[in-house]
Design goal:
Elements lengths: L32 H103 L6 H31 L6
Length: about 180
Amino acid sequence: MATLYAQPSKEWVIPAKPKPGRKPKRDDPVVDEEAASDSKAKKVQNRAAQRAFRERKQSQLADLQARLAQYEQGEIERNVALQNVAKKLKEDNERLKFENEKLREESGKVREENLSMRNRLRELQEEYLAYRRKMEPNASHPDLESSLLPFVLCIHATSLQAQAKSRRDAFINPYHHS
């Protein structure tokens, strides 16, 4: 029996489809002296341009890093200065709170003493007037009473001023005893 199929006379090889993208480099380059020298010159120029670009980029990066370090150092110095100011303000605040408390205590003591002295002054005035009445029972001395009051008040005020001054001096310089 004879075959009815056609037989190819040669074996054909179908090449694989090329992938999309760059074209594959050919093994058989067209040798053209001018094209080859232009291509080499272009490659050299591209390498030099790329090197210059990298150097510029590196220089810019170094400059930015130096500026950043300078800014960070300035920021650190400003933070230290602010912390010192805050510390001093806290110390001043504590000192002022302490002084304020001492002044409040001192003010309370002065008020109590003032009230006590006023009461004592009234008692002395009453004793004096009783004594005067006893010495001169028939004479009424309203002028004497009114004339003595400023004198007694003046003595009392002078006494209070002296006490206040000594307290103030003791508070201002507690280690100096005069």
